[in-house]
Amino acid sequence: MNNNITAMVFTFNEERRLPFVYENLKDFCQIIVFDGGSSDGTEDYCKAKNIKFLLRKEDDNDRINGLIWSYDNSPTDYTLHVYCHYFYPKELLDTFSEIANKGELSAVYHDMVVYRYGKVVQKTIVRRISSACSFYKKSIIDFKNTKIHDELAIQFDEDSMVRLDARDELSLHRFIDEDCQSFTVKTIDYAAREASQKFIAGYTIGFFGLLFKPLWRFSYSYFLRTGTVVRGTPGLIYALMNLIYDYHVCIIIWELCHDLDLKGVIRENELTRLKLIRGMHDSEKK
Known about the structure:
Layout: E1 2-11, H1 18-25, E2 29-35, H2 42-48, E3 52-55, H3 63-72, E4 78-83, E5 86-87, H4 90-102, E6 107-116, E7 119-122, E8 132-137, E9 161-163, E10 171-176, H5 180-200, H6 207-225, H7 232-257, H8 262-285
Parallel strand pairs: 1-2, 1-4, 2-3, 6-9, 6-10
Antiparallel strand pairs: 4-8, 5-10, 6-7, 6-8
Helix pairs in contact: 5-7, 6-7
């Protein structure tokens, strides 16, 4: 048990998956569950296992302040940012523990292996580089640049951080418990948030960007980077779902650029319908 590290587990209705996290980390460090208002047995499980349970102070419009509050309530500087679809191999945890005991490095970059349908669907086979980061000192976090898919915006610094060898034993394992329907329902909200963030940051997109950018990312990911091309049908499905997500983001950005949210769509359609009606009446008068 390493007293220099706190596993910050972020939950929302995770009664089913939280036991996997607990068994993975119970002998590694202190675990604190930061819950988003679960209505299932997440809190009851924490009570039964004597896991510290805190209700996050955040909502969709105040996510950053909620993260700041959560990190303020973590007792150690070294933290492990955990979601319930994560699994950490023993060799990776041992590495985290060794680094925390020395206290010299501020963050660790590791690789990630992704599973869907119980199969590996993403693991880089061409120039595999550790690029994920879930273990770091909370004192290095700059919340101003936090993004929805890069929650804490930690940029690699070769002077104070380390990249581990990109091996399965030193990689975070991520399990995606979603079928196509649940993925679509969940990710459309994420796509809208990401699109809004990019639009506010000045990102724009036109016809060719809308057509080709998601396709380029799909081609790069599927054929070159993640190795999904050798993962069979599950790998193809994983890549296609990401492609659909990317198209959602691009379409929403285009709509925002043209003031075409739902009200804007209705407005433009009504204006066109009025023109058609006027044209019909004018032709009748003639």
